[in-house]
């Protein structure tokens, strides 16, 4: 279950690496669950109790439909980088005041990354005439982006209107700054006049980065949306690219994990599940939602190298009370198209690199949310 989720069921299937292999049967013996290395799909309900050592999660965990993962007060869970918890069933994490449930990154020694800012760089940030390649401004964190043309040895300002946050992340990494907390904007350069750029002989092609490249030169040239024969160049009064490289909000020995996601096995399920008739009580069947109470979520928000909210609910209405979300790489709590009343009480979101709480209701679904 990678960035999102997709459940594929093949039956029967070959159990051997051969076209003449044996076919599978309906019943499969469940693999034993290793509580010291939680991973994979949980196909049976389990309860995690407090212990001296934290529960460590080294790969994605998926709570399958019909399964309940119960976390007792005082439990500490540590997640490997980029690893997330996907809840298709139910999560019951009820802590108590003084015995909060803790979900945090694994503390580990970080690999020493060479500081590219100490080597000859092909990008720099400038405000007025003060640029980051000047020894007096080596720690510069923001400014208008300029690119060094190694052939003409000219610093060329960039005015690409589609310069993305992923591109800015690569620029910050190349300069030895924190890549995740990057921000990009566009604006005029007041120090330029009509003759400022007349001596620039060649302009770089626009690029599109994934955000994981080491240098801007490693990014692919952007070919879509370009007019045939158009020459990429900037005029003195163009809107130039402005990049800011922010500070890291986690200790150096920790890295961001993926966060918690609540959703249905099938998106169509949310349309009719509230109208299913119970033949015993003659009432509609109300889904049992997940619960997060007195839980501390720290260092989440980066799922498989993509920024994701620390707590994300799609078509679900989990009970979130007295939850502390801090030092995350993206938004704190995000709800997309909740189908019923949502309980968000006494929560605390702080030191995140995104918005605290976001709620999106799709067009025409407000009446369904109640």
Q: What would you note in describing this structure?
A:
The chain is mainly beta and 370 residues long. The chain folds into two domains: 37-108 and 253-360, no CATH class; 123-245, SRCR-like domain (Mac-2 Binding Protein, Roll). Helices cover 5% and strands 31% of the residues. It has three helices and 26 strands. It has helices at residues 165-174, 269-272, 366-369; strands spanning 38-42, 46-48, 55-63, 68-71, 76-79, 84-87, 90-94, 101-105, 123-127, 130-131, 142-149, 154-157, 182-187, 207-208, 220-221, 240-245, 259-262, 291-298, 302-303, 306-307, 311-314, 319-326, 333-336, 344-345, 348-350, 357-360. The strands form four sheets. The chain has a 16-stranded parallel β-sheet that branches. A hairpin with a 2-residue loop joins strand 19 (302-303) and strand 20. The longest helix has 10 residues, at 165-174. Residues 366-370 have low confidence and may be disordered. Residues 123-246 form the SRCR domain. Disulfide bonds join 209-219.
